[in-house]
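Risk register update: the risk of archive-format incompatibility is retired. Evidence:
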Amino acid sequence: MTGIGDDPFVAAVKPLVDAMGGEMVAPDRAGPDDVVL
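Archived output:
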């Protein structure tokens, strides 16, 4: 995910997303099966 910078939430969640093999995308790019946090 680009354009977020050093957001603390992203820094905290990214290792979990990576471990699950997921991809972080901007909320406006999320599809119907994506989880938006």
